[in-house]
Design brief:
Blueprint: H1 3-14, H2 20-30, H3 35-41, H4 46-53, H5 62-71, H6 76-82, H7 88-96, H8 98-108, H9 113-127
Helix pairs in contact: 3-4, 5-6
Length: about 130
């Protein structure tokens, strides 16, 4: 993992305690974008966005989540996780070898974040 990726993971860790809606609201406000303006950008109604941010409605569809992430400079995988979803490209990768990937993920279940990062670093440096 590059230093930039590790710094990103650290910033994601710090924001991990919020819900999907809280995270979207905080990011939108941090960018100085009004609710109405952002709803227009991501092509949903302001009422719908407000209810998502307040947790009155569940997160939107995958494509809309990725649009939100892109428009707010947020990590798409993190927002997908907060929404209880997995990015489509990750699902596609896992479906190539489902038994092996499932065993890998289950085997990593008890690993610390630091050990997971070390494993990622090892794998990515080996295969680059």
């Amino acid at each position: 993992m590059s230093d930039r990726e590790l710094q990103h993971c650290d910033s994601v860790d710090e924001a991990n305690d919020s819900t999907f809606g809280e995270r979207v609201r905080a990011a939108r406000r941090a960018h100085g974008i009004s609710l109405r303006a952002f709803a227009s950008i991501i092509e949903i109604s302001p009422t719908y966005l407000s209810k998502i941010e307040r947790g009155e409605l569940p997160p939107p569809a995958t494509d809309r989540i990725l649009s939100i992430a892109s428009n707010l400079d947020e990590d798409g995988d993190e927002l997908m996780g907060l929404a209880g979803k997995i990015a489509p490209d990750v699902v596609g990768i896992m479906l190539q070898h489902p038994v092996e990937y499932a065993a890998l993920v289950r085997g990593m279940r008890t690993m610390t974040r630091e050990r997971i990062r070390a494993l990622i670093q090892s794998v990515t440096s080996t295969w680059r």
